[in-house]
Queue: 2 jobs
Job 1
Amino acid sequence: MEGDKQEAIEKEVAKVTDVSLKELSRKLEEFALERDWMQFHSPRNLLLAVVGEVGELAEIFMWRGEVAKGLPNWEESDKEHLGDELSDVLLYLIRLSDICGVDLGEAALKKIVKNAIKYPAKAT
Ligand SMILES: Nc1ccn([C@H]2C[C@H](O)[C@@H](COP(=O)(O)OP(=O)(O)OP(=O)(O)O)O2)c(=O)n1
């Protein structure tokens, strides 16, 4: 990556201490509007985009065998690539949720509660 592009990314990220799904969602909508890409962001297209990016994520792990937690033997560039693909999955998932009128943060919190009811922790 060229130096000035890397510098711009680092400057943008340095401002962020914490990020919410709502903030990411707002940025993604702005990004699509600025490029007149709302026309492409239909539920079906976004679902296919999620699946495509999950495939790209899987490719990173393909043929490597089991991988130790924390990825201790990976090159920094491989970790960067992993971060990119994880982000693509997250970003398209947020966009898909938005376009379907689902509040993903709220749905995920509710789902954690449902999971806890379904799988109660053992009493100590
Ligand atoms: N119609 C589109 C196209 C792209 N994106 C955004 C969301 C993703 O975060 C990223 C995906 O871009 P690419 O399709 O270029 O995919 P990659 O970044 O994975 O590139 P490549 O497939 O070349 O590795 O861009 C978007 O919001 N809407």
Job 2
Amino acid sequence: MTIIVDQPPFENGNEEQIQKKREELELVLDGGFSIPHANSFGHNFRDYDVESERQKGVEDFYRVNHINQTVDFVTKMRQEYKKLDKAEMSIWECCELLNEVVDESDPDLDEPQIEHLLQTAEAIRKDYPNQDWLHLTALIHDLGKVLLLPSFGELPQWAVVGDTFPVGCAFDKSIVHNKYFLESPDYTNPTYNSKYGIYSEGCGLDNVMMSWGHDDYMYLVSKENGTTLPSAGLFIIRYHSFYALHRSGAYKHLMNEEDVENLKWLKIFNKYDLYSKSKVRVDVEKVKPYYESLINKYFPEKLRW
Ligand SMILES: O[C@H]1[C@H](O)[C@@H](O)[C@H](O)[C@@H](O)[C@H]1O
Ligand SMILES: [Fe+2]
Ligand SMILES: [Fe+2]
């Protein structure tokens, strides 16, 4: 099997990077999932510096995202969406709605989102056959992207997709296209721009406000509708776009013990979220009965959105 390394290769990395790379490879190989050579555009995955038309769009996306995702904005969004008064529907109905949605922040994928959900879920199911909660988590992790649709408020892309990060404390350098934070009003606000900002050491990610988007929304919907998914599943849903944490190891000072445990599962999940993106279609009708059975196990029939 050929493995493409999208981070510094072994020889050039320092001890820490080498160790990290080893762990990553072990995780992938353990499960038997083979990493594709390149994304659908023939580039390395998550290469935000490659020269291409798509990348220009992605960079522009992050400029607007970083300027507008402020403490004020997140507070307003949380208030609005906790009403859960936008729709009533089942999980599967929501999967079907995602047929319409294309994510402009994603340098690796321009397929409809339902393909991505099923590709991720099927890949993780193959390698972790006994963790049914993980299969369902994969299926639903991006459902929050319905926020882009008219009946869910038709939020702009910058308020729905892309990597997420904490607001209310200093923005970490590892966040993609971080130079655009210089234009954020929170960047110069002394209450928000120190290492801890409005938080304290080990306060737990649960108490941290993340930039608003599909992750936090789907977490809210799952929780408020009484899902029985384990806490690792909810953690994956809520922080799967938080690459500064799960890829770069930033913001660890805000985590508590439960976060540390859950992060292990998030790191496993991330390989499948990222590397299962391909042009190979999943036969929806064939796998639907299996996922319907998981939905019945972990969710009520209709949810408030
Ligand atoms: O679903 C999204 C997405 O496709 C993005 O491009 C990425 O930045 C996020 O981290 C992810 O959760
Ligand atoms: Fe996502
Ligand atoms: Fe995803």
